[in-house]
Amino acid sequence: MKEIWEKAQEIIRERVGEHFYELWFHPVELVQVKDGQVLLDIPNRFFKEWIEDNYPGLVAEVLKPAAQDGEELKVKYRISEKQDPAAKKMDTLLETRKTRLASRGVYLNPKYIFKNLVVGQSNQFAHAAAIAVSENPGRAYNPLFVYGGTGLGKTHLISAIGNEVVDRFRNFHVFYVTSEQFTNEVVHAVRHGKTEELKAKYRNLDLILIDDVQFIENKTATQEELFHTLNTLYEAQKQIVISSDRPPREIRNVTDRLRSRFNMGLIADVQPPELETKIAIIQKKAEVERIPMPQEVIEFLARKIKSNIRDLEGCLIRLAAHSSLTGAPIDRDMAREILKDIISEDDKPLTVEAVAKAVAEHYGIKLSDMRARKRTKDIAIPRQVAMYLARELTGASLSEIGKIVGGKDHATVIYACKQITEKRNSDENFGRMIEGLLNRLKP
């Protein structure tokens, strides 16, 4: 057993990196693998929370060689520290709901419900659309296409639709799938001559939730099967919900007819949250997890963590795990020390380079592409956005900004800023996107 776990840990270390391995996986111990179940000893419930949220299938995957006859492994955790009754009750309720969902063939995170979702200006429109869809699937907005940057709550939002529909419509056949999983199923079906089985699985649903659809770029067979699946469901007035890290027009290398299908319903964006919403998110998470969190620490985290909601919540769980292990109360000094790898660079002045990198990440392109001489629309607009934001947020000169984004002269920078200002004023969705990037990058 020890040898099995040591090999698994090496794989985990390679997958997650040294820092996260030492912090979250090194203290975990394998108790047994028996009858399709993996039992792990973990220090406290916050380790379980973090691993399930960030790497839900990793342990089962790396321990698959230890399973009998390729059986599916289920991971269970044994918490070392004594749990308070309220925490134990909540864990039991979540496990019961998870089992109930699985009995209907629905594999959604039971925590991802509307009640646990904080609504602010950044996600208000998408949230309202999601509520409408969950109350009237197949008729309100179909398909519903939700897009936004990494870690902003898209998976929570579309999963909340699934959980709500499961509760409201007892006979509905609901299915959640990532585009990566869908691609793997298509490849397997084609290779083993099981395409009819695949069609039967996906074309008889009442609600399909497809996460991270941008990963179907350049995958011809997947796009073909997805188009016909969506077409069949749409014509039968079945609900389609899709998430992506970018709007349909910016998903490259997909067929025109599939892009047209994405565009047929409602497109809703999720932007980085403003300060007040970040504070509310931390308060809500602390309340749900029963973490004693002083207001000054909540505001400290909200101001210092500027990447995304996932990182924000991850920092909270990290502090709670440390506090639980050491018995020390959470305060600002602890937060500064425990999270120094995340917030250490926060006090440095914002650079044009950092702005350009953030814009490239948002648009899903390489920074080197932005600096190249390409003039295609999918590169030209991000380049102009980077110049505009750099002028708004840094003290760099026009020539310095132009140099960083591809050797442009000051006249080009001025023109780019004018173009983005006009587009921001005339296009509401674009304006919200710019506002979101500004909120994310502001010192």
Gyration radius (Cα, Å) is: 23 Å
Strand order of the largest sheet: 5-6-7-4-8
How many beta-strand runs?
8
Sheet with most strands: 5 strands, parallel
Strand content: 5-15%
Alpha-carbon distance between the termini?
50 Å
Overall mean confidence score, pLDDT? 88
Helix amount:
55-70%
The low-confidence runs, each spanning 5 or more residues with pLDDT under 50, are none
Anisotropy-based shape: globular
Give the helices and strands as they follow along the chain: HHEEHHEHHEHEHHEHEHEHHHHHHHHHHH
Structural notes for this entry:
This protein is of the alpha/beta class and 443 residues long. It is built from 22 helices and eight strands. It has helices spanning 2-16, 18-25, 45-54, 58-62, 85-103, 124-135, 154-168, 179-191, 195-202, 220-235, 256-263, 275-289, 295-304, 309-326, 332-338, 340-343, 352-363, 367-371, 377-393, 398-404, 410-426, 428-441; strands at residues 29-34, 37-42, 74-79, 144-148, 174-178, 207-211, 239-244, 266-270. The strands form two sheets. Strands 5-6-7-4-8 form a five-stranded parallel sheet, sandwiched between helices. The N and C termini lie far apart (50 Å).
Put the structure in a nutshell.
With 443 residues, the chain is an alpha/beta fold. It has 22 helices and eight strands.
Distinctive features:
443 residues, alpha/beta, 5-stranded parallel sheet, 3-stranded mixed sheet, 22 helices, globular
Write the layout of secondary structure elements.
Layout: H1 2-16, H2 18-25, E1 29-34, E2 37-42, H3 45-54, H4 58-62, E3 74-79, H5 85-103, H6 124-135, E4 144-148, H7 154-168, E5 174-178, H8 179-191, H9 195-202, E6 207-211, H10 220-235, E7 239-244, H11 256-263, E8 266-270, H12 275-289, H13 295-304, H14 309-326, H15 332-338, H16 340-343, H17 352-363, H18 367-371, H19 377-393, H20 398-404, H21 410-426, H22 428-441
Helix pairs in contact: 1-2, 3-14, 6-7, 8-9, 12-13, 12-14, 17-19, 19-21, 20-21, 21-22
